[in-house]
Amino acid sequence: MSFLSQNGSAILTLTIEHLWLTGAAMFFAATIAILAGILLARSPRWARPVIGIANILQTIPSLAMFGFLLPLPWLGDRAARIAIVALTAYALLPILRNTYAGIRGIDPALVEVARALGLTSRQRLFKIELPLSASFILAGLRTATVTCVGIATIAAAVGAGGLGELIFRGVASVDNRLVLAGAIPAALLALGADGALGLLERWTKVPAA
Amino acid sequence: MTTPAPIPAIEFRDLSFALPGGHMLLDGISLTLEEGSTTAILGRSGSGKTTLLRTVNRLLEPTSGEIFLDGQDARDRDLIALRRSIGYVIQEVGLFPHFTLERNVALVLEAEGIAIEKRIRRAHELLAAVGLDPATFARRYPRQLSGGQRQRAGLARALAADPPILLMDEPFGALDPLTRLEMQQMMRSLLERFRKTVLLVTHDLDEALYLADRIVLLDSGRILTSLTPDEFLRSAQPDVRAYVRAFRRERPGETSSGPAVDRTLPEAQA
Lengths: 209, 270
Prior knowledge:
The complex is a heterodimer. Chain A is mainly alpha-helical. Chain A has a single domain, classed as MetI-like fold, CATH 1.10.3720.10. Chain A has eight helices and no strands. Chain A is elongated. The mean pLDDT of chain A is 92. By secondary structure, chain B is of the alpha/beta class. Chain B has eleven helices and ten strands. In chain B, the strands form two sheets. In chain B, strands 6-7-8-3-9-10 form a six-stranded mixed beta sheet, sandwiched between helices. A four-stranded antiparallel beta sheet of chain B has the order 2-1-4-5, with helices on one face. At the A-B interface, helix 5 and helix 6 of A face helix 2, strand 6 and helix 4 of B.
């Protein structure tokens, strides 16, 4: 109990930091990937190369990714910037892939009717395509968020803070309590995000006709 | 000297459509559709029926040739305005699953920015016209409807903006025979009520005979014949006869009285 009373405020601060890193990265990743997904759905011949690039980003080991970004100008000045850029890169693929697949997966008859009714390209996007693919896009967002909450613990390696700091300190001092103090809140965050986005996903799902 | 012919509602002039590989789906189609007439396009699968239909609202752009709508080249019209002035009904219906029926039916009006009360009133009017009681159906979702009810709603949607032209691609092809018959009867009374120029793609000779003023037989992207229903049944042309025979196959023991055009309403079968 004394452990908690000693470290409680640190855990809280680092949890908030963790949330901020993940949240900022998710915001950027969602903006970029949803826009890119919409564009790719309109010109599918670019889909393979662009999704390929996002795929490659995903395969870079996270520690190496943070290392690569460290020497870059501006980015390297602040550890949080590195962390956010790296996390954004990891979050792109699931959101991009799901946005693209979600829009492309809409029943062709519906797409054709939307065109034939004389909906403008913008009306088609906002009235038909996005509502019908929303649950797909949210599923991508969910996968990306859970992944990012986990990878964000590595960000402590470059001094970006977050719950990883407790884990790294615990590993260095062979103190399992510290490791758990970082790992348990991180796991809870991941579960919470998973649950909340899962609900939203179910809520936006359009039942099949 | 003859009096000048009225301007046709739809006129295809030497229209061709080729796939990127060079395969011709439509090959030199010239056809005139009078205003207020119904033209049925018959032909085998792959003969170019649907392709022809889709060039009218420019879902497909022909490789060569022109389409004139009311004497005006379709390419000179604004694409969005053109499509909103043409009703489109397909076999799959394509009702949007996330919208209620009233929103589906009035979607074109919504796209035009018409006030919601007016839209809803129009949607209810049309649902009633196609035999779907608005009090029961307006707030339902497409998944809560039977196939026939969906097709009715699809028809209501096509009529929402009161378009002068209706394109119908095998609209009743997926329905059971009794529902199909009901739909054909409703279609005919609707056409008597609202004057529309209709281009109807169908596989069903009976449907063509019942609904159309003119039957066009398409083969490999070319027009084989363009005849009235009477002429179609009497034609000695081998292709036409083959088509008629495929539908009016005699059963052993039946006498050959020959098919007759029946333009009276068939009795509804309960």
